[in-house]
Amino acid sequence: MEHFGPDELFAMLRSCAGADEGLDGLEESAGEVLDVPFLELGYDSLAILQLTGEVEARYGITLDEEGVDEAETPRRYVGLVGRALAEHRAGAARNPGAAAAAPA
After folding, report:
1. CA of residue 82 relative to chain centroid, distance
2. Which letter does DSSP use for residue 36 in this model?
3. What radius of gyration do the chain's Cα atoms show?
4. Whole-prediction pTM
5. How far, rounded to the nearest angstrom, does the alpha carbon of residue 34 sit from its chain's CA centroid?
6. How many angstroms separate the CA atoms of 82 and 97, rounded?
7. Cβ(6)–Cβ(28) under 8 Å?
8. Which of 34, 35, 44, 80 is the most buried (most CB within 10 A)?
9. What is the DSSP letter of 23?
């Protein structure tokens, strides 16, 4: 998996932390909730911690802890993951042997 966008974020949030009332009736992919803080959507720091562990395991990346703390909205979290994936791809391009050893 190389793409991480809002659809992947909300699917993983539901999987890790369960569906939440904060998302009822809102179109995630239409951007209605991308700038709403996770807390207002009903996802606390534990839910984000669970999400982060799942993202790191699934994509074979490590997210900056300070960056995760600052990514208070879905849009910022997606951006953080996108940057980490880009860095991961750049590192793999510089060192193809390391990419083969990275988890899938």
Report:
1. 8
2. S
3. 14
4. 0.80
5. 12
6. 22
7. yes
8. 80
9. G
pLDDT tens-digit profile of 20-75?
Answer: 555 655 555 557 889 999 999 889 999 999 999 999 999 999 999 999 999 999 99
Task: Please list, in sequence order, all residues whose beta carbon lies within 8 angstroms of the beta carbon of residue 97, skipping any fewer than 6 positions away.
Answer: none
Q: Please write down the long-range contacts of 41-45, taking CB distance under 8 Å and 24 or more positions apart.
A: 41/74, 43/13, 43/17
State the Cα angle at 2 between 70 and 43, rounded to 5°: 35
Q: Distance (Å, rounded) from C-alpha 76 to C-alpha 63?
A: 13
Look at residue 57 in the predicted model and tell me its pLDDT: 96
C-alpha–C-alpha distance, residues 100 and 93, integer Å:
11
Q: Where are the beta strands (DSSP E) in 1-104?
A: none
Q: Where do we find the tokens 């904060």? A: 22
Q: Of the candidates 50, 62, 56, 63, which has an alpha carbon nearest to the alpha carbon of residue 14?
A: 50
For the record, the structure tokens of 78 come out as 């997606």
